[in-house]
Design brief:
The protein has 603 residues and is of the alpha/beta class. The chain is built from 25 helices and 18 strands. Pfam families: Glycos_transf_1 (PF00534).
């Protein structure tokens, strides 16, 4: 798969830098083929050239920002400019778009309406937090919104704290740092008011420069004036823009990071602090509270826009420095949000977007369905839903011959078919030596690589029948996949000895997104395939009370004399409570949500 990333904005722009770091991560960790394109300016010629280049890739990924009540690719393009929409219209590749600053005031009703229009031109919209997703749900279909947490940027530890202070000429006293561009909603003024109340031995670093908007320059001047009036000049350093190497020294020299934001979307500055495992004190905002879902206590919070509360919290945090509990929580956050992991999640989104694009193309095909007897069939499912066990059961019938995962681009079993077209595979494998009806096993994540048109071909063939095998308990499926990935052991039989694994940690956000993706794929499949050609079978019923679903399967395929399996034949595994390390945290997190049912009957 070739991925095209669009980098828009000035070289030091934070969102452009985010995109460039992602690109580096894909190359470094996913070994992906990347096409980097830079949008040089807002003129139509530049947009046409870039859109044309990105039309040649498999997936195009762009960054969008909410700016003064509008959506744009970069500040230079201007809010509300038609250039952003022109780019989307001219790009022929499936588009994945990340939207920044959704939870800020810039993302007002007008911006949300623009996002709704752009969503119709995308395969997937990525947002950073649950708050972002909830804000956009009235405007964008839920299956198009995917939560992608901000990565923790890989940064070098260039020096120990004391050494870094000496090299930067900082005093050997507690150094408190606020990082990022200087503008009003970052809350620098709140920090300075709080700092003026702190003991004389504290030193502050404002590590940033004014943002590139007119009001930010006057805001910075007001901060300097406050510093002078309060007699804080000798205790505060304003660095201006910091190149990466120098920034690493300031990160290393810091005793406490403060993020006094008035509003916040995803925070690149918090990610930088986490990369250095520095204690962080931040405003208690919903988007920042999501770090607690990963590791409670990693970030300390205080009320926003309250200088006295901030001063008290800073003093308390300095007195409790080097807390082992907070250090351990920061390490856990770093592990979950490291660039390697987030680039892997992006790659999963790209694969799904590619499948969605193909399904949508197939969905546009209309035809009259002929009432004919089945000549071929497909078992359609997701991994860890009993697909291979059902295949084994059906293969007991002499009139059935099911081919195993031919369209799985990642399976070595497909090597013999890579030079064949989809039609050649579907029709050329119909000649079974025993004259059996051919079947095909497909997971809904298949249909990429050499066979990207497989769903179109299946939908166009009235002689095909489909058995859709679903699993009701999303959590059991998700944990089964995680444990199979640990063991690299994909098919398990009831009497087979499988090595025990330690309980798995389930990231609630990743699990939630997996459920959205699962439902989305089924919705697209069911809109594509006529109802009379498909039969839905539930994994749990086939395992516990198989007689009724088994009769439905044999009738659907017009098979006779196939014995019904015994109950409890499919499911293998232990109770979820013993399989999940953070079971209670998950149960509490999903209380009163649609996924609460996963815990009601722990399989």
């Amino acid at each position: 798969m070739k991925i095209g990333l669009l980098h828009a904005g000035q070289p030091n722009d934070g969102i452009r830098r985010y995109s460039e770091i992602l690109s580096w991560g894909f190359k470094r960790y996913q070994h992906a083929t990347i096409g980097d394109e830079v949008l040089a300016g807002p003129d139509p010629a530049s947009v046409c050239i870039v859109a044309q280049k990105l039309s040649q890739v498999d997936i195009a990924h762009v960054q969008l920002r909410c700016l003064r009540g509008s959506i744009t690719l970069a500040p230079e393009i201007g809010p509300g400019d038609h250039v952003t929409f022109q780019f989307f219209e001219r790009t022929r590749a499936p588009i994945v778009a990340t939207i920044h600053d959704v939870s800020t005031a810039s993302c007002n009703e007008n911006a949300c309406q623009q996002i709704a229009k752009l969503a119709s031109m995308c395969c997937q919209l990525l947002v950073f937090t649950r708050q972002d997703r909830e804000k956009l749900l009235p405007y964008v279909p839920s299956e198009k919104l995917y939560i992608m947490p901000h990565f923790v940027e890989p940064r070098r530890i260039v020096a120990e704290k004391d050494e870094a202070k000496r090299m930067l000429g900082l005093p050997d006293t507690p150094v408190i740092t606020v990082l990022g561009k200087i503008y009003f909603r970052k809350g620098y003024h709140v920090f300075l008011e709080a700092f003026s109340r702190l003991p004389q031995n504290c030193f502050a670093v404002l590590a940033g420069r004014p943002a590139d908007i007119g009001s930010s320059q006057s805001y910075a001047e007001q901060l300097v004036s406050f510093i002078e009036k309060q007699g804080l000049v000798q205790r505060i350093r304003i660095t201006g823009y910091l190149p990466d190497e120098l920034l690493d020294y300031y990160l290393a020299a810091t005793d406490l990071a403060v993020c006094p934001f008035l509003q916040s979307a995803a925070s690149g500055s918090i990610s930088s602090w986490i990369s250095h495992r520095k204690p962080v004190l931040a405003s208690d905002l919903p988007s920042l509270r999501e770090y607690d879902l990963i590791a409670p206590g990693a970030i300390q919070f205080c009320p926003p826009n309250n200088s006295q509360a901030l001063a008290d919290a800073i003093q308390k945090q300095l007195e409790a420095s080097n807390s082992q509990t907070q250090n351990d929580a920061l390490k856990q956050v770093h592990q979950v949000l490291q660039l390697k992991e987030i680039s892997r999640r992006h790659h999963q989104v790209y694969r799904r977007a590619q499948v969605v694009s193909h399904l949508n193309n197939a969905r546009r095909t209309t035809r009259e369905e002929a009432d004919v007897a089945p000549k071929r069939f497909a078992l359609i499912s997701h991994p860890r839903c009993g697909t291979h066990m059902l295949r084994t059961m059906l293969m007991q019938h002499p009139g059935v011959d099911i081919h195993d995962e031919i369209f799985n681009d990642e399976s070595p079993k497909t090597e013999a078919y890579r030079q064949m077209t989809t039609s050649q595979v579907l029709h050329g494998l119909g000649g079974s030596p025993r004259g059996a009806m051919p079947g095909f096993l497909l997971h809904l994540v298949h249909g990429v690589g050499p066979w990207s048109d497989v769903w179109q071909k299946l939908a166009d063939d009235p002689e095909f029948r489909f058995i859709a095998l679903k699993r009701r308990n999303h959590l059991a499926r998700f944990v089964s996949m995680a444990k199979a990935s640990q063991l690299r052991h994909w098919q398990v039989y009831r009497d087979e000895e499988v090595p025990k694994t330690s309980p798995v940690y389930v990231d609630p956000l990743e699990f939630e997104q997996d459920c959205y993706a699962y439902d989305e794929r089924w919705n697209l499949f069911e809109s594509l395939v006529p109802q009379q050609q498909r039969l839905t079978v539930w994994y749990e019923e086939l395992d516990e009370e198989p007689e009724v679903p088994w009769r439905s399967i044999t009738n659907h395929l017009q098979l006779d004399d196939l014995p019904c399996p015994e109950p409890k034949t499919i499911k293998v595994g232990d109770e979820l409570r013993s399989e999940i390390a953070n079971y209670e945290q998950l149960e509490n997190y999903f209380k009163n949500s649609p996924l609460e049912a996963c815990f009601a009957n722990d399989p």
